[in-house]
Specification:
Strand content: 15-25%
Strand order of the largest sheet: 3-2-1-4-9-6-12
Radius of gyration: 19 Å
CATH architecture of the largest domain: Alpha-Beta Complex
Shape: globular
Number of helices: 7
Number of domains: 2
CATH superfamily of the largest domain: Spore Coat Polysaccharide Biosynthesis Protein SpsA, Chain A
Length: 256
């Protein structure tokens, strides 16, 4: 039977890490890359049986690439600390790597927003490549929204990865600032430009796309809040991008 390593990048995830590692313990190895936690995350992960490696934070993509290089399994599965693998998905993952029918598998995600699982708004089924043969696996170098890559064929699994993405409004506001900064940095490195007019245009379109085009209104109150959040995310991302363009050449872009 092929072996599996689950890779988790974490920092100050004491509220999540134990449940996350526990859901992944069916794997032959759970590898946690901890980038300077001060809340006991490494100890909690180790207590659940994970192999913990202390690292710096080079960005999400580079960190995941490190995990792939360190993994001992024939297959790697990238997991965030706020995600959980349920029993049905566990069985499907083991069946997939045992069959060898593809080199990589996309997993659907069921994500929550402030206590409610979202079924519209562009969040469902949200297929994401997460399970790949280690020798064929890679990661893009984006600082924020990096994604896994595979040099080979892919298939989709049926059962969902459960994602507890935004705990409450405080978490929403913290991520709004952090993610908009990271998004601006990625756009800056791609040579994109920002301005007030672009911030307004992208912000309005993000709201309309989430709430109307992607039927966020069917998610009720939380769907409206999520649409506003997406609009604000786009608005501030392009404002921060404009600020990066005006920054002195020798000044590092702000980190999220």
């Amino acid at each position: 039977m092929p072996t599996l390593t689950v890779i988790i990048a974490a920092k100050n995830e004491a509220a999540n890490i134990a449940d996350c590692v526990r859901s992944a313990r069916f794997a032959d190895e759970v590898l946690v890359l901890d980038s300077g936690s001060t809340d006991g995350t490494p100890e909690l992960a180790a207590a659940e049986g994970a192999r913990v490696v202390a690292t710096d934070w080079p960005g999400y993509g580079p960190q995941q690439a490190r995990g792939i290089a360190m993994a001992r399994g024939d297959w790697v599965l990238s997991l965030d600390a706020d995600e959980r693998i349920g029993e049905e998905l566990r069985k499907e993952i083991l069946q997939a790597i045992g069959s060898g029918a593809a080199d990589g598998y996309r997993l659907p995600r069921l994500s929550s927003f402030c206590g409610q699982f979202i079924h519209h708004s562009g969040w469902r089924p949200d297929y994401t490549l997460r399970l790949v043969r280690r020798e064929k696996a890679g990661f893009t170098a984006h600082f924020l929204h990096a994604h896994m890559t595979v040099d080979g064929s892919t298939r989709d699994l049926r059962h969902s990865l459960v994602h507890y993405s935004y705990r409450d409004l405080d978490d929403v506001l913290e991520k709004l600032n952090r993610y908009s900064s990271g998004g601006a940095r990625d756009l800056h490195e791609r040579g994109r430009s920002g301005s007030l007019s672009k911030a307004v245009t992208h912000g309005l379109w993000a709201f309309v796309r989430t709430y109307l085009v992607r039927q966020g209104f069917r998610d009720g109150r939380q769907g409206f809040i999520l649409a506003v959040y997406n609009g604000e995310m786009a608005f501030y991302k392009y404002l921060k991008l404009a600020a990066l363009q005006r920054a002195p050449a020798d000044r590092d872009p702000p980190r999220p």
